[in-house]
Amino acid sequence: MPDSLVPVFKLYGETRQWPTPDLLHCESIPERSQRHDWHIRAHRHADLHHLLHLSAGGVRLELEGGSRAFDAPLLIVVPAMSIHGFRFSPDTEGHIVTLSRPLVEGLQQRLADQAGVLARPEAHPLTAPRQRERIATLIGQIDDEYRHPAPGRRRLLEALMEALIVETARLAAPATSAQAPAPRQRDETRTHLQAYQTLIEAHYAEQPGIEWFAERLGITSAHLNLLCRRLAGRSALQLLHERLLLEAKRQLIYTNLTVGEVADGLGFSEPAYFTRFFKRLAGAPPRDFRRRQGESENGEMEDGMTSPVADRDGSREEI
User: Fold this and answer.
1) pLDDT digit string, tens, across residues 111-148
2) 249-266 pLDDT, tens per residue?
3) Residue after which a domain boundary falls, among 124, 159, 179
4) DSSP class of residue 11?
5) CATH code of residue 267
6) Single pTM value for the model
7) Domain that holds residue 159
8) Does Transcription count among this protein's keywords (predicted)?
9) Strands of 33-169, DSSP E
10) What's the structural domain count of the chain?
11) 201 and 279 belong to one structural domain
12) Cβ count near 195 (within 10 Å)
């Protein structure tokens, strides 16, 4: 199927936007797949990676043009831009962890070669009892931490993800060393999109124009927009704005910066301009978003859990 005909999903089985200020999203396979009659049609993500862990049941996996049935226990790696689809058996249990591009790039910097496993689409049967138990434990800890906000949440989630990637790299090591395959070569348009996303990650707070990005990629801004719309389903400017919005949400929730300080740090000339930008994309002004998030998280706090503190304009930081 040509790339231009493959739908681009924003999340597992959905076309809606990334729903959380966290850099990862975790949910059980049944809670979303049941809504789709256990079938997620073939699609791809421009900037999201998946790790699926099946503890029970099975799946007919479509991955980069191939189709094969697998039984649990199983760990599936789906890199960004890989075409994939799932038809789960109704007794399937497990979780899907979705990683945003900024998180993946940070993991690649810290884990070097071991993070290369995230670039290889693969299904890994969990045949060794020790590895099966260790991976199941890590997935369970990630799910528990994701669902129950607590101080140090971001650091613990990233530490757990580092451990999970190391375990996944160990799973992949025998096949990799035996075959020594080079990572799948991307065509020129995919390479340009990935390079653009890398530039966004390095320079989003400076808010350079699309022409600036295109010049550094050696293509025209019109060509950059065309390939972004073709492969990511959004314009080049929309991709830049989505990264700015994600960072704004994270700073509003996880720091005690004022709205003006967040605006300044993200390259907005005036807080009023930032407020209009944020309201247009998030549906609420920054202060309302911050207050609602605080009310939501405080409502989920368990007995004995330390609550975030609020500063003068309602912002919070982890303590």
Assistant:
1) 988 888 888 889 999 999 999 999 999 999 999 999 98
2) 888 887 889 999 999 999
3) 179
4) B
5) 1.10.10.60
6) 0.64
7) 3-179
8) yes
9) 39-43, 48-56, 58-63, 66-71, 74-78, 84-88, 93-100, 122-125
10) 2
11) yes
12) 15
